[in-house]
Backbone:
């Protein structure tokens, strides 16, 4: 007999907010000492641990009969991974740097070799560093310009609190300098004597930039910048010219960047242009653009909704001195730009497809690198060099494994350096990728990317997994996934709904999926599912929906709105307790989220709007689809109690009797398992859930 699902004890509480009674039955699942739990999961309250472990045991019992199928599925997915794979070496002066994995290794090795073809040296061994740790994840790693030292960051709890260490690359020994509880951002001074890094505040917000002089006690490090706005994050970057460090501050709408002259011993940050609400900008540098030391900024200033590129003298970079270099053109969204001595490369998207544009600095002439497939992913990877005509990019589609290319911006010659190897075999001709368009209730056309195996029946009998995200302007690329093939080879159609909230069709596509337009994300996703049914690809009892984080909130919303349209829903680290979280500015990262969802503390319209769709608050008696929710105990982005409360309310309200599962990774955070093979276990569970939900054997 199947075990009974756990029932979280109801401990009702009520509060009145803006005249509305908000009832909480499961608020007790939020640990009072949650900050301590982020650092040390062992201090979790015993009652909460008992409940989460009971949910895990119930999920384990659900999957237990599929143990052999899971083993086979993991082995199949692992067979598509080149276990000793390596990245293409990136040249930097006398060395080329790259990462690789050893056969059977879970974590990367960071390596270098002397040019042109010297022997490999392992600089960091991820498997060795992770030995004996329940969780391990490398953050950033950066070598000094003289190639003598390497700074690296590692998280050992999943809470995104990284310890920074510095390794002497001659002796291989770590220096005494250990900087705890950072974000993992790293930046070296030009001479390699100073390291810049960021600490988080009590609410887990990246907010303070410090200067560390090698050989000194980190407790004496100098605070050089502190962000006063609790809604702003801080990050570190560097211009391609390597002259300037960049202290970038901002939320989802507004940004401000400070220059840090890396050639100086103790530079003070210099603001480029003071923040203006709604104005965003990113910065690159060129020492002699038209004979002037200049900054080139990507910005939406002056109504440039889809962004433009402007120049400004480095000495006087304020807004009054910005001059258009690449003017705004509606519908063409400029995503990023990189400057080299003789060229500029920019990545842009138009009509839902990306392309790379190369510009000759001297003449202003431009040409494009583009591809012909219906849907594909393109990435720009500039490397370490500045005085070079070579730029590196990656290309993939849902059928084509990832390719790494070097492109000569002067001669326009391209060379493919690597194509992702699939050891067990893969023929792109066996698969089909397509781009469809669904009509949203307001008439908007929503792109849908499809992948299926040739011969898959398109008569409505095929099961379909529909993935969605739709927040923060993030676009889900139509790229290649080896693990996805295991689902497709078992008869599934895999679909990505490019819903509003991303920037697939420009910045307006994002703006129309946030704040007052947030429900467009949900109705777009529903429209995509309905379109796929109407076009004969599948039927509602064969659709499994999937999304994670903000996409998990999408899953919770559509489960409430149209439970009849989906057989099952997979919600990974789902942001589902939106109203309660946005009403609590003491929680990790809540103030920075207000520009995305609204501030219900100060804005009644935002309160009413969020209340109308917040998944936890809108669970009601009805027959829900089968649901599989995944959480991470040390997750600082979506706290573990959000999916726990959601599942508890679903269990109490559901009238249909389908399976509702909660699985909490007790040793990880937002990203789940860190090891590359451990991750396959989690993917396998999702696929097994999808297969079982639609009645397929494995």
Residues:
């Amino acid at each position: 007999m199947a075990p009974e699902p756990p029932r979280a004890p109801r401990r009702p509480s009520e509060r009145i907010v803006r005249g509305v009674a908000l009832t909480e039955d499961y608020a007790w699942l939020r640990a009072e000492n949650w900050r301590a739990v982020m650092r040390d999961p062992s201090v979790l309250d015993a009652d909460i641990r008992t409940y989460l472990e009971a949910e895990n045991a119930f999920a384990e019992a659900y999957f237990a009969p599929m143990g052999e199928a899971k083993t086979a599925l993991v082995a199949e997915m692992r067979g598509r991974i080149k276990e000793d794979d390596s990245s293409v070496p990136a040249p930097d002066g006398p060395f080329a740097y790259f990462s690789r994995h050893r056969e059977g290794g879970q974590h990367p090795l960071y390596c270098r070799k002397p040019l042109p073809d010297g022997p490999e040296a392992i600089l960091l061994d991820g498997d060795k560093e992770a030995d004996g740790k329940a969780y391990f994840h490398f953050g950033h790693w950066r070598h000094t310009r003289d190639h003598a030292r390497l700074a690296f960051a590692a998280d050992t709890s999943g809470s995104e609190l990284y310890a920074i260490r510095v390794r002497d690359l001659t002796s291989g020994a770590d220096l005494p300098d250990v900087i705890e509880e950072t974000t993992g951002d790293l930046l070296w001074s030009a001479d390699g004597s100073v390291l810049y890094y960021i600490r988080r505040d009590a609410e887990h917000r990246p907010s303070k930039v410090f200067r560390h002089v090698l050989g000194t006690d980190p407790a004496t490090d100098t605070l050089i910048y502190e962000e006063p706005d609790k809604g702003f994050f801080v990050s570190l970057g560097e211009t391609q010219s390597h002259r300037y460090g960049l202290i970038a501050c901002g939320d989802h709408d507004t940004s401000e960047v400070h220059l840090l002259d890396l050639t100086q011993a103790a530079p003070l940050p210099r603001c480029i242009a003071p923040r203006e609400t709604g104005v965003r900008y990113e910065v690159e540098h060129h020492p002699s653009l038209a004979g002037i030391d200049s900054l080139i900024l990507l910005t939406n200033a002056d109504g440039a909704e889809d962004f433009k590129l402007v120049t400004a003298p480095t000495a006087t970079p304020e807004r009054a001195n910005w001059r258009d270099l690449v003017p705004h053109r509606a519908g063409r969204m400029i995503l990023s730009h990189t400057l080299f001595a003789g060229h500029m490369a920019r990545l842009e998207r138009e009509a839902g497809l990306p392309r790379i544009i190369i510009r000759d600095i001297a003449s202003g002439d431009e040409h494009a690198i583009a591809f012909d497939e219906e849907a594909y992913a393109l990435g720009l990877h500039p490397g370490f060099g500045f005085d070079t005509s070579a730029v590196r990019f990656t290309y993939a589609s849902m059928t084509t494994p990832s390719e790494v290319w070097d492109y000569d911006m002067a001669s326009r010659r391209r060379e493919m350096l690597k194509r992702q190897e699939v050891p067990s075999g893969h023929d792109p001709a066996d698969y089909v990728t397509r781009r469809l368009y669904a009509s949203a209730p307001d008439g908007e056309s929503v792109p849908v990317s499809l992948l299926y195996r040739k011969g898959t029946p398109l008569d409505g009998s095929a099961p379909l997994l529909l993935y969605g995200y739709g927040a923060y302007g993030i676009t889900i690329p139509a790229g290649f996934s080896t693990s996805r093939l295991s689902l497709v080879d078992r008869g599934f159609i895999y679909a990505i709904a490019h819903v509003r909230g991303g920037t697939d069709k420009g910045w307006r596509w994002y703006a129309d999926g946030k704040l007052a337009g947030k429900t467009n994300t949900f109705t777009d996703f529903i429209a995509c599912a309905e379109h796929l049914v109407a076009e004969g690809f599948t039927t509602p009892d064969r659709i499994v929906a999937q999304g994670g984080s903000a996409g998990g909130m999408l899953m919770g919303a559509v489960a409430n709105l149209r439970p009849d349209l989906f057989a099952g829903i997979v919600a990974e680290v789902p942001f589902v307790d939106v109203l309660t979280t946005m009403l609590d500015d003491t929680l990790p990262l809540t103030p920075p989220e207000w520009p995305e969802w609204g501030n219900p503390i100060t804005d009644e319209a935002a309160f009413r709007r969020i209340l109308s769709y917040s998944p936890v608050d809108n669970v009601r008696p009805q027959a829900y689809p089968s649901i599989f929710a995944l959480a991470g105990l040390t997750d600082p982005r979506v706290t573990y109690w959000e999916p726990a409360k959601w599942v508890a309310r679903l269990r109490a309200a559901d009238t249909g009797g389908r399976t509702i599962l909660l699985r909490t990774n007790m040793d990880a955070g937002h990203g789940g398992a860190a090891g590359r093979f451990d991750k396959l276990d989690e993917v396998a569970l999702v696929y097994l859930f999808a297969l079982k939900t639609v009645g397929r054997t494995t």
Summary: The CA atoms of residues 432 and 452 lie 5 Å apart.
